[in-house]
Amino acid sequence: MHQQMIFVNLATNDLDAARTFFTGLGFAADDTFSDDTTAAIPLSDTINVMLHTHRKYAEFTKKRIVDSTSSSEVLLALSAASREDVDALVEKAVAAGGSVTGEPQDHGFMYGRAFDDLDGHTWEVMWMDPTAAQG
User: Fold this and answer.
1) Backbone angles phi, psi at 118, to 5 degrees
2) Is domain 6-133 in CATH 3.10.180.10, yes or no?
3) Element of type H or E holding 101
C-alpha cells in the first residue's frame, strides 16, 4: 500500500537562516533535494518541509506571496509524544530565533503551544492523551 506523504512548501526571506532554524529544532536537512534556492527538511518519513527562496516559490504559483509576519496563509500543526516534548520543541524554536505565539492551551487530556518561525509561519505543537483520543 502506498504511504501518502505531504510536502509543506514555504517561502522564506533568508534560506540559510531558515535552514539553520529548522536544524536547530533537531531536524536534519536532506541535501539530496536542497540547493541554493531550496532546503528540504524531513520532519518524519511522511512529512517534509520545503523551504524556498521567494524567487523559487514564485515558480510554483501565480498568486502573490504573502508577508507571513503580518498575514496568515496557513497554520501548521505537529503532534508530540508528550507534554514535555511540546515544551521542548517550542523552547528549541525560541532558542533558534523563533517566537512564542499565543498562550499555552491546556485541556488536561490535550496540551498545545505555538511558535512562529523566522518568516512568521505559525507552527502549533500538540500532545493528546492517547487514552482520551480513543474515547
Assistant:
1) -60, -25
2) yes
3) strand 99-106
Cell of 3: 504511504
Contact 80, 89 (CB under 8 A): yes
CA 38 to chain centre: 15
66-118 pLDDT, tens per residue?
Answer: 999 999 888 999 999 999 999 999 999 999 999 999 999 999 999 999 999 99
Specify the amino acid at residue 98: G
For the whole model, what pTM was predicted? Answer: 0.88
Strand order in the sheet with 6-12: 6-12, 47-53, 38-42
48 within 8 A of 41, measured Cβ to Cβ: yes
Q: Counting every residue, how long is the chain?
A: 135
pLDDT at residue 133 above 70? no
- The answer to whether the beta carbons of residues 115 and 90 sit under 8 Å apart is yes
Pairing label, strands 110-116, 47-53: unpaired
Domain ranges of the chain: 6-133
